[in-house]
Amino acid sequence: MNKTRKLISLLPENTDCAVITSEDNRNFFLSFAASNGTLIATKKGAFFYTDSRYITAAKQSIKDAEVRLQTKSFYDTLNVFFEEEGIKTASFEAKHTTIEEYAFFKKEIKGVEFDFSGDIDNLILKIRRKKSADEIEKIKAAQAITDDCFSHMCSFIKEGMTEKEIQLELDFYLLSHGADALSFETIVVSGENSAKPHGVAGSRQVRKGDFITMDFGAVVDFYHSDMTRTVALGFASEKMKKVYNTVLEAQEAGIEAAVDGARCSAVDKAARDVIEKAGFGKYFGHALGHGVGVEIHENPCFAPKSEEVFEQGDVVTVEPGIYIPDQFGVRIEDMVVNLGDETLNLTHSPKNLIVL
Length: 356
Ligand SMILES: [Mn+2]
Hints:
The protein is of the alpha+beta class and 356 residues long. The protein is built from ten helices and 19 strands. It has two domains: 3-129, Creatine Amidinohydrolase, Chain A, domain 1, CATH 3.40.350.10; 133-345, Creatinase/methionine aminopeptidase superfamily (Creatine Amidinohydrolase), CATH 3.90.230. The chain has helices at 3-10, 23-30, 55-61, 74-85, 99-108, 119-129, 133-156, 163-176, 238-257, 264-277, and strands spanning 17-20, 38-42, 46-50, 66-69, 89-92, 113-115, 181-182, 187-190, 211-216, 218-220, 223-224, 227-232, 289-291, 298-302, 315-318, 321-324, 328-331, 334-338, 343-345. It has a six-stranded mixed β-sheet, covered by helices on one side. Helix 3 links the parallel strand 3 (46-50) and strand 4. Helix 7 (133-156) packs across helix 8 (163-176). It starts with a helix and ends in an 11-residue tail after the last strand. The model has no long low-confidence stretch (mean pLDDT 97). It binds manganese (II) ion.
């Protein structure tokens, strides 16, 4: 069943349609890149309105919705549609509606009961969470570029380069080897900066005895990859080795615990316990992992307070880290997919400590 059909089949009883305007959800349902467009799913079918800038491309590529040219304002388009289709109640994406837009809806839309409960958002997140074989293939393709990029970077990085230079080469590699976009702003942090989990690449030059952490990913057909590796330049001190091997052991324990039906909090704990036992617990402040799909962060999460269960079709990262302020940090991140009978690691880059 295609994705819009699936949404229609799961539309709650108490609503006549779902109005979808967010880019992430449009990308998910239509695989169509546009800054403008409205997908409306009714019990009769799916309709996509977009303006003259996108109409030709939309008609060529969209198969799962009837494509219509939007000639009036957004609100007038909805008013006409609701009247023609006899829509009495309409559900909107609460998570993607600003208070200003909400006020406009109330003022401009006539004769329809609104649903801004967030139920539609949650339903869509649930549909998005369970990845199909086709979606997993796209994530694999994105990760393959990411893995190739890492091996390229291992031969590219030299003493004296700035974090920014390394970041630019990394981004250029991804974008010139099939990535439609970067998953997020690439993180390259070195030396004492590597103790900042989401530090920003800057003018610091890498030198011998540094850890260099790279966190990056590619987007292919709207699906993201996400990976982190920390490498050493020149040499690694005994303390650096100890921290690195603790993170690696934690990461492997997390992956081993990520079996179908496991509590997501238990997967987090399996990794966190290793770090705590080694005495570095206070240096691991974030969750173990997050879901990945058309958004870089989606459900479920491997986190201490998660109440979710790891289910078939989930694609989640496993990324423990230890960050010692003013000294250095290490993070190792892979993406795994729950296939039911097995959990497959989609990341193929080596994880042993690499000294460049
Ligand atoms: Mn991540």
